Amino acid sequence: MKITLISFDYWNYDHYIVKALHNKGIEATHIDIKKYKYVYTSFFGRVRNFISKTFFKQNIKKIKRQEFIINELINLGKQDAILVIRPDLISLTTHHKIKTFTNNYIAYLYDSCVRFPIDHLLNNVFNTIYSFDLNDVASYQFKHITNFIYFDKQPLKKAYSYEVFIVLSPDERLTQLNAIAQQLDALAISYKFLTVSSRKPSGLYKNIEHTDKEIKIEALKQYLEASQIVLDLVRDGHSGLSFRIFEALAYQKKIITTNVSVKDYAFYNPNNILVIDPKNPKMDPSFFKNTYEVLPEEIYNRFTVDTFVDTIFELD
């Protein structure tokens, strides 16, 4: 069986899908758009691209990137299935070309259609569209699937460096973050809150850290491991579960989240997960006193990358 994944693997989550397929003995290939680098041959090439983008709405770099995808598929030949993640990054014309290489063309949306619209791709482009977002599933009749646990379950730890951890880009959630930090200070609960962006946001609470350096996945996992509780603040318009939720499950950490939809999932346990109001994110002091209750293995396994690939590619 031959399967190809096409994605822009910014956070390096997608390659775990290919790894899981390899472990099942499947011939799987990852066309990672992020790794394609367009090189201008001259200064005039940059000028031409500037003119093309400004006046003709055509970006030569993006055009070449999509030619790269097709050339890779020509080398690979016919596939039993092709999965594309973030299909909005690929033109409709290129999607139709990709589809000629398989009879099973699948899309997975790990962000909402509010942020990354795909209305232009809904007319019989894909055989199946999966989405992590419950609102989009209801609106567009997509198939629902969550993000996934991408690494092995870690031992339950009793020692930690701080109680609550979050890393995020400063956006509309900053007010929530500031309010939660102030409450934790009042309760004498330790935390590591880290915002990441090129510039430090104005109005950032004094005990929240900021960096302009990208947080790599291995560093992120170290932060998660050192915490007792993972804080998850959902973006406006999202109802899907972020990867923070699944990383917390793998590390067997408690969770504080503004995502009320978490209550609809089999792993939800009010002892382990505190759902707070995004407009009034009040902490319940008693939540910090409870110890983590281990999930049943059967429930945990529903959310692993192995189950994800079995579902997406109908391998069961």
Can you walk me through this structure?
By secondary structure, this protein is α/β, with parallel strands linked by helices. The chain has two domains: 2-145, Rossmann fold, CATH 3.40.50.2300; 162-301, Glycogen Phosphorylase B (Rossmann fold, 3-Layer(aba) Sandwich). Helices cover 31% and strands 18% of the residues. It has helices at residues 15-23, 43-56, 60-76, 92-99, 134-140, 174-186, 217-225, 243-251, 297-301, 305-312; strands at 2-7, 27-32, 81-85, 105-109, 128-131, 143-144, 162-168, 191-196, 209-211, 227-232, 254-257, 273-275. It has a six-stranded parallel sheet. Helix 8 links the parallel strand 10 (227-232) and strand 11. It is globular, with a radius of gyration of 21 Å. The two termini are 14 Å apart.
The biggest sheet, with number of strands, parallel, antiparallel or mixed sense and barrel status, is:
6 strands, parallel
CATH topology of the largest domain: Rossmann fold
**CATH homology-level superfamily of the largest domain:** Response regulator
- How does the helix and strand content classify structurally? alpha/beta
